[in-house]
Write a structure and sequence with these properties.
Length: 112
């Protein structure tokens, strides 16, 4: 068990379900509950980085949602909190990519 601080909370990402542990790099990079901080991170990131973030996290939304629903029914953990921040940030990252490029990440290019 290795506790670390992410987004101002202390978490042990080893406590995540096995199917979500590969999201640890995205959680470490993007998870924050501070909307202004998240927005600044998105603006400073490259479009490719944001698209990769969106694509890696959005593919896991079913597992993320199942995990978050499970924690709502039980005791909410700080690990669930950073997972929810990461998912929320991925949605916002997709909006930034669309604003910059005219198309959603992973979607067809915008018409000229």
């Amino acid at each position: 068990m290795a506790t670390e601080e992410i987004g101002g909370v202390h978490v042990d990402l080893d406590r995540l379900p096995e199917e979500l542990r590969d999201l640890a790099p995205a959680i470490r990079r993007w998870a924050t509950g501070d909307v202004d901080d998240r927005e600044q991170r998105h603006e400073e990131a490259s479009t490719d980085e944001l698209a990769g973030y969106w694509l890696s996290v959005s593919q896991r939304f079913p597992e993320i949602n199942a995990y978050l629903e499970q924690t709502i029914e039980g005791e909410r953990s700080d690990e669930a909190l950073v997972v929810s921040w990461t998912a929320e940030g991925a949605l916002e990252a997709a909006q930034v990519v669309e604003r910059r490029t005219g198309s959603a990440p992973g979607g067809p290019p915008a018409a000229a």
